[in-house]
Each structure stands twice: as C-alpha cells, then as structure tokens.
Amino acid sequence: MKRRLFLMFLPLGLPLVACGAILGLQEPTIDDSLDTGTGSDTGTGSDSPTNTDSPIGDGGAGPIQLLNARVRRIAVDDASVYYTQQFDYIVGRVGRDGTGNVALANGSAVAGYFPNTITADDTDVYWASINGIHSCKKAGCAGTPTHIIDDSSSYGPGSIAVDAANVYFVNYDSNNSTNSILKVPKGAANGTVTTLVPVAKLCATVNRMVMSGAYLYYTCDEGPVGRVTISDGTVDVLTAKSPAPPLNADTLSVGASSVFYSQFLEQGTIYQMPIVDDASSNAIAVTQPYPIAMASDSTYVYWATAGVALDNGSGAIVRCAASQCSSTTTTLASNIDIPNDLFVDSEIFFCAIGNGDTPHTGVWKMPKPP
Fold it and tell me: How far apart are CA 64 and CA 44, in angstroms?
C-alpha cells in the first residue's frame, strides 16, 4: 500500500491522517527491562508520566508528555521543541522540560493552511503549509511570521531544509508528482523561487528529503535513493541499478557513512546503504508495520512504526545497533497511536497525532537507554 493511499494526501503532496481513524489514544509504555542508569529502579512502576517509581531507572521520570496537542512534525534544539499542529493551524514552541508552551503562529491566515514539515536554524523556525513556506523567530514574531512563499502560491512544498542562505523544498504538483527541488532565500517575504533540480533529473515521486552536510539526500517511491549537491544541484543516484532497489523507499536518516531508510508498507523493511555510488541496500530489519519516522546517532538507528491498525495503539519506537542490527532489534516504546516524527540526541522525542480530546497525544520524550 502506497503512502498516499494510507495517509490520505491532500492536493500538492501534503500528507494528512484521517481524524476519524485515530481513536483511543493510550499512554506510551516502555520496555521495563531498559535502564538509563540515571536513577533508582524498584521495578514496580506504572509507566506514568508522573510516576515516581519508574521501571526504567530514570529517577522517576518515565516517558514524559511535554504537550497535549494534535502534533504533526517536530524540530528540536538545546532548549525547545518546535512543532506543527496540522489540523489546528498552529506552529508552536515548548521547552524540553515541558514548560513555556507558546503558539508562534495561530490560525490559517498566520500559520498557513495545514502547517506540516518543520525545521530550524540557530535563530528561526521554518515550516511548510499546503502552498507556502513561512518563518518565525524562535523567541517569537508577535504572531506575524514571514511568509517566504505565500499560501496563495502555486507551489506544493513537501520536505524542507535550510542552510545559511536558503530554504530548500521538494515541490509537488496537483497529482502528487514531483516537479523539482526548489530553493528560496531566507528572511524576506515572497522571495524569488529558483530551481535547484529540475523534474527531468529526479525520480517521479520523491517521498522524503533531508539535509546532511553539503547534500540533500532523498528517497523515491520508485526505489532509488540519491543526493543533490547543494551548491550546484548535481544529482547523484546512490543506489545500484542492478539489482533494482526496493520500491517504496520512504523515511530516511543519514549517518557518517550510511543512509538508513525504510519502506512504508504493512510489512516494511529497514535498509542500510553505504554512501557510495552504485550501492546495494542491505536489509537490517524486516516485517516492520508501516515505518513512519527515522533517526540515528553514532551507534544506533531508531525508527517509529505506525502499526497495521491505526485505532488500537499499535505504534512503536524501535532501535538497533547499526553494526549488527539484525540481531539486536529492541522495542523501546509501544502502545503509541501514530508516532509521526522522531528526533534523537541525548533523549528521544516523538509525537503522536490524535482527535484532540484524548489525554495522551502530543509531544513526548523518554530517556535514551545506554
């Protein structure tokens, strides 16, 4: 099943989850055998965010809910988590300790229609809406963000990334086909959009794009995984042509020498591929139910699965050692409804999207086991 059928895409390539399919959100639970080594562990906790007898040995914190909201995507810095509430037309900021929640942009006329993908640099937050790209100072912009591309435009932004000068974005047409990878200068309203990579040099459907170093890495529904040199738009398809790369390449994370990526399928596979030309994709975990988000650090690769059924809390956060993944896969958290995004540094942040009336949707964090 393709991502577009599963997630109900709006026009112009913007993925949404049907509200009616997301019911009965439950508090995420974590593996009781995991211990962060940062606190006492009596092993009798209930996995509650306010539990003082946590089974993971983290000093009683357990999985902590930072925000209760219908969160779609997140970006994280040393102080805060920045998030989009796609169905509520809100872009906000909450402290990593759960304090100081504030809406940076509120309402479709301000945040844009269906704010979705989000990223940040040292001073600003950037996000894509159904037809626009917007920015706001991290400290706040008095509810008046800069509309780098106005929502009245004919563009259809998907994944976005930023460097010192520009915002880069995958552009879709009304049939969810990839037109190109475009760029627009940061900072100014209604900036001039230029083409970094024309459609003829890309696969038919780019699913995800992330920036790492001097490159934009991307995955294709048709299978290829490639990268674009930011300075001149040179496209380098990394995957081997024979045998053909596996179809439905979707969410990805770029490490020092490998690209990790997944298939968005009911029985999805997680792949590791060296960052070299004509690379083979090696399966490192199989039968993963709809991998939907991914992250990695110097030792591990992490991914979130949506689960086969959307209404029974069957999502999970899974980790394995990148060097020996097939024998070390560990489920860190389960009982999650649609963990849409994932970020890893010294902690794991993940978010779930819900119907707005349940207590356990929003932004959560949990300690990262050693």
Answer: 17
